[in-house]
Amino acid sequence: MAFPTNRPRRLRANEPLRALVRETQLSAADLIYPLFVVPGQGVREPVTSMPGVLRLSADQLASEAKEIKDLGIPGVILFGIPESKDPEGSGAYDEDGIVQRAIRSIKDAVPDLVVIGDVCLCEYTDHGHCGVLSDGDVENDVTLPLLAETAVSQANAGADIVAPSDMMDGRVGAIRSALDAEGFEQTPILSYASKYASGFYGPFRDAAESAPSEGDRRGYQMDPGNAREALREIASDLDEGADLILMKPAMPYLDVIRSARDVFDVPLWAYQVSGEFSMLCAAIERGWLDRERVIAESLLSIRRAGADRIITYFAKDVARNALG
Q1: Residue 213's pLDDT is what?
Q2: What domain range is 254 assigned to?
Q3: Residues belonging to the active site
Q4: How many folded domains does the chain comprise?
Q5: Is the pTM of this model over 0.70?
Q6: Domain CATH for 211
Q7: For 42-68, what is each residue's pLDDT tens digit?
Q8: Nearest C-alpha neighbor of 282 from the set 269, 273, 270, 291
């Protein structure tokens, strides 16, 4: 029997050939960079559990935004740590709140950098939950108007996109109605439609000071064992008016991303969360993994699963490698 004429190795012989037939590409344009904003002046505070990630005061955002734009990264998502917290998370919807000031600062400095406002109360409540707490339970319907007010205040400050991450039922519809009523019909909603109650959020909660003081978030975030439920959540949020969908975490839920991509023909994003980032950084720092290769491979896996864009703390690394 003759040796097969089909030799797949022909197209793997060198990098130019491999690049020419590569099915999934990765570039800075595919990525969104998260920013943590804190009170004060001149603050550039390292997050100890997230190597290379900083908490920045609003006055530092102009230069940061210019660097991000120059690297070819098209957008940022903002998380705020307020001066004070209360049971209703009023800092989230304060017209002069930490994120609202940050949005204005970035848009003044770099108008064409896309700014996404995370819409949630967890960073602003003194109990750390994503909504109003009553007898240890988050009150879904009481929370909705506060989330809607938060989204409107961010849009009013100049946010290009608002992104509810709270996982309250009906919040997309409430936010869409409030935005439309206030003249923000053109402001898109990026819904965290598939957000799991994950163990991979720990470093983020350090950075955002948002860990619950009692209980946990399993009563409103999704159970890690459920995949079909994610499709129902996405369908529901699209029906309520979501324009883009975000799935979180990414790498532990690649099967869910793939399932969603097969079903929904809408912009589908994924968040490579803090635990995914810090886990890789820890192995890289010990010399167990090659930094450039594992960063690219981890992000390619998310893109290959079907995500159009990825929120990641590695965005600058990817961009610098591309420019270098």
Answers
A1: 66
A2: 26-323
A3: 195, 248
A4: 1
A5: yes
A6: 3.20.20.70
A7: 999 999 999 999 999 999 999 999 999
A8: 291
